[in-house]
Amino acid sequence: xxxxxxxxxxxxxxxxxxxxxxxxxxxxRCTYCMAEHMQFLPKRDLLTLEELDRLCSAFVxxxxxxxxxxxxxPLVRRNIMxxxxxxxxxxxxxxDEMTLTTNGSQLARFADELAECGVRRVNVSLDTxxxxxxxxxxxxxxxxxxxxxxxxxxxxxLRVKINTVALKGFNEDELFPLIDWCAEHDHDLTFxxxxxxxxxxxxxxxxxxxxxxxxxxxxxxxxxxxxxxxRTGGPARYVRLEESGQKVGFITPLTHNxxxxxxxxxxxxxxxxxxxxxQEDRADLRAPLRASAEDDALRTAxxxxxxxxxxGHDFDYSRRHVSxxxxxxxSHTGG
Length: 335
Ligand code: SAM
Ligand code: SF4
What we know:
This protein is an alpha/beta fold and 335 residues long. The protein has helices spanning 49-61, 80-87, 107-116, 131-138, 143-155, 175-185, 202-208, 212-219, 286-291, 296-306, 330-333; strands at 17-21, 66-70, 97-102, 121-125, 159-166, 188-193, 225-227, 236-241, 246-251, 264-267, 272-274, 282-284. It has a domain at 17-161 and 262-333: Alpha-Beta Barrel (TIM Barrel). Mean pLDDT is 90; it is low at 317-322. Helix 1 (49-61) runs parallel beside helix 2 (80-87) and helix 3 runs parallel beside helix 5 (143-155).
């Protein structure tokens, strides 16, 4: 096979989107994402910034056009701006877009530099606009710091999309306040259904599960929802709220099957490649990366892994128990 032929999986899906987790650490401890006392990976297991660059550049060479940097919290990784700066050389030369998902705590420090590196959009996770609730759900986070970060991102010219995990009994009553706040500040907004990751007890997770179909019905009591054709190859579906003109997304990995158009893979900060967020199968890319300064073995390992990309995931809450669960934390694969 042509060494540079673009990546295509066994179901003829072109792989054009890479999500890379640059650290498993975080300055927050969101209850649905991490245990309060997390055991983090030893530093020697992490890919260096240079190795992350080689790895992502290999993917760009194989046809990846969109890169999302995530974590853990990507902006707490030491010297992470060096990585963004280095990766910006691919923009317009293979890579169409470089973006990140962040909790926003460090955006006030880094927004200008991110914009200089060619980042145009950021996803900021924010589940509540209430200061006390924010501290409760993130355990260690402070709402004013995040709001300041979001302001800084806007001021730097970045488009902000807010990601909100829908949590029953937690932010249900904030549905309309969140919508109004996003309209006022011109942020896009996407709701995410809570997923069965990590060690949270099944009972607790089912209690928190707020189906987005229900959220959507509630939204329709105040707004006219027009479904948009827009597809990202991922689990997001969008509607326009006719009265405000806002775009609202729904990420429903559990109630919809989106796998048939999946175009993405994930790499962890230790160089493990996950071909599907909902499955345990993975490939080690750190060994071929460290075995040689040339990228041939790395590219072969990537191709072999993509050839095993499964058709889809098996998450299912429908029978009042959690099945298809994977044992790792979301911070491990970056969501
Ligand atoms: N720290 C960054 C942040 O919070 O945006 C990036 C990493 S975080 C793991 C990525 C996304 O995953 C966040 O939007 C977070 O809300 C979401 N997430 C974490 N755990 C989740 C879960 N169990 N179910 C659904 N979404 C989850
Ligand atoms: Fe950290 Fe993001 Fe996980 Fe919250 S969701 S603990 S901010 S990695």
